[in-house]
Amino acid sequence: MKITSPPTDSEIALALRVLEGCCLLYSQYTALAHKYKAVKVLLNILASRGPTEQRVCLDALILLMLDSPSNQMDFD
Q1: CA–CA separation, 50 and 30 (whole Å)
Q2: Is there a contact between 50 and 12 (Cβ–Cβ < 8 Å)?
Q3: What is the top-level taxon of the source organism (predicted)?
Q4: How many C-beta atoms lie closer than 10 Å to residue 31's C-beta?
Q5: Of residues 50, 65, 47, 67, the one with CA closest to residue 11
Q6: In terms of Cα–Cα distance, which of 23, 11, 5, 9 is closest to 59?
Q7: What CA–CA distance (Å, rounded) separates 23 from 26?
Q8: Which of 37, 36, 28, 39 is nearest to 61 (CA)?
Q9: How far apart are CA 8 and CA 21, in angstroms?
Q10: Domain ranges of the chain
Q11: Which of 48, 56, 61, 68 satisfies CB 3.0 to 4.6 Å to 30 for a cystine?
């Protein structure tokens, strides 16, 4: 299956909510988020998307940085 269109606002918001849930359930996901530079991706979403994604993005950023010095340093 080849995806030809960019994701919709609701698809991005849903994906971010799934990321939040994973981080809440398994603390190892915050380390994986650091490995794949998720904080930088979220900052890009925050700067370039609409209010729906921005709201969810802020929630996800807080969860990624909670008890994760490496993700906090990525935020700086």
Answers
A1: 25
A2: no
A3: Eukaryota
A4: 12
A5: 50
A6: 23
A7: 5
A8: 39
A9: 20
A10: 10-75
A11: 68
